[in-house]
Amino acid sequence: MKILLVLPAAAHLRVTDNASRVPRRAMLRFSILPLTTVAALTPPGHEVAICDENVEPLDFDADVDLVGVSFMTAIAPRAYQIAAEFRRRGRLTVAGGFHPTFLPDEAALHFDAVVVGDAEGLWPRVLDDAARGTLEKVYRHNALPDLALTPTPRRDLMAKTAPHYVTTDAVQTGRGCTHACRYCSVTAFHKATHRSRPLENVIAELKTVGRNFIFVDDNIIADPAYARLLFRRMIPLKKRWVSQCSIEIADDPELLALARAAGCRGLFIGLETTSAANLALLDKAFNDSAGYPARIRRIRRCGIGVIAGIIVGMDGDRVGVFERTLQSLQRMHIDAIQLNIMTPLPGTPLFDMFQSAGRISTRDWSRYDFRHVVFYPRKMSPAQLQDGADWLYNRFYRLDRIIVRALRTLWTAGPVPPLISLKLNLTYRYDNIREGIVGQNPAARPKRAGPPRRLVPFLARW
């Protein structure tokens, strides 16, 4: 069979025949590991191609027999459009990814088949059934698959579009996270487990990638013993990489030093909030927000940049949270942020809680992109939350602040982290300008009408 694997894109990021210019945001693109892995899982005898709508137009008239589409919640409406177009042309369609896993019945209304959970062990069955004309509606695992089955991804299929990515060398050592944060779809998808690939498989794959790459693990130190072995084995390879992990790496000096020696130059860390009460509400009290400044200093002094995940709109947040968060980020010398408006994703405990309380304001999945308010906040209005989040994003990525951050990181962390920081900061600033994100601080006092107050007594004498 001829198989096309598709990554859909939101309308404002999508490349089409009529809008062929690729947005200049390569720093936010790092391979498409789920699809390159599915391509590698495809048995011999099939032809496979990949289309990422973020960087190239999708040809609905392509000569293919089966189309696989992997998507998150915010992209579900586009995924359903894609499926409809291909089904209208007589092509078989298969859905996979987080959203179809959490809402398989919904996805099954639009696709010929749905893969729930990981593709390992299921994708070859799907293709066999499709070839025989016995395609089932939903494919599920009886147990989570062994990641020893995970092959080296088909990066060769991305050769044509590779210049549009910061790297196509994305490697994964394990999947999942045992922390049970209420908002986290990763925990829900992997059923609060963490599984590691065999270390020898990972080392063998690392020898095939370039010097600079990214670990796309949900938490690279989820298994500290495994991480120690991995980092020690990596030191002779002389690689440079970034990844994401828990703030807890700062509490283990040996593990932190090993990560740096193994080539770590930047970490995405989900700080989420500086409020201990908010962290407790999210079942993430282990973050210990009071210790953030000291822990961030330890990581940065080790020569590793810190990109922080921040969430606004939690139940403890009032309108003053935006200004306080900006000040805290500045004081902690955070290199970059990914700012998310609290979003209750289907499949998570947070969604179930908000749904039962009647706090979900829309089920337009396209707005579940972490940049729009889709629920009723507890201590501010939806408009205040939207305005404040936009204001914070805009102010953090002000040009003068970007320059100061880069120079400060150059002084404290060496040459590579500030280069990563500068490129990432400018990319987020580009996004803000392109999307017209400005906002306003809902806690700011409104400007007084008329002359300044200090001039009133003077003018009254005349």
Please describe what this structure looks like.
- The protein has 462 residues and is α/β, with parallel strands linked by helices.
- It is built from 17 helices and 14 strands.
- It folds into 2 domains: 2-139, Rossmann fold; 169-435, tm_1862 like domain (pyruvate-formate lyase- activating enzyme).
- Helix 8 runs parallel beside helix 9 (253-261) and helix 12 (321-331) runs parallel beside helix 14.
- The protein is globular.
Task: Give a count of the beta strands, DSSP E runs of length 2 or more.
Answer: 14
Task: Supply the CATH superfamily name of the largest domain.
Answer: tm_1862 like domain
- Average per-residue pLDDT, rounded, comes to 94
The CATH topology label of the largest domain is pyruvate-formate lyase- activating enzyme
* Fraction in beta strands: 5-15%
Work out the helicity level. Answer: 25-40%
Rounded to an integer in angstroms, the radius of gyration calculated over CA atoms is 23 Å
Helical stretch tally: 17
What is the structure about, briefly put?
The protein contains 17 helices and 14 strands. The chain is an alpha/beta fold and 462 residues long. The strands form three sheets. The chain has a six-stranded parallel β-sheet, sandwiched between helices. It has a six-stranded parallel β-sheet with strand order 7-10-11-12-13-14.
Notable characteristics:
single chain, 462 residues, Rossmann fold, pyruvate-formate lyase- activating enzyme, six-stranded parallel sheet, 17 helices
